[in-house]
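Deliverable D4.2, example record:
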Amino acid sequence: MPKEKETQTQGQEDVRRPHEEWAAQKGTPAWLLAAARVKAGWALGQEVTEMEFDRAVEAALKEVIR
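Output generated by the structure prediction step:
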């Protein structure tokens, strides 16, 4: 039985949604979403986990644009 709980917990953490849905849910500005999309190499509508989305947004925020 503990294995089922572990599987369920992992399944909840690995929810995949289109990155546009994560952006709408989190209130991510359009410019930042576009930067994160390019930095991560995502196609339009590509499904990602919340962690992948957050990491891509962080990476885009740290990018220096001159």
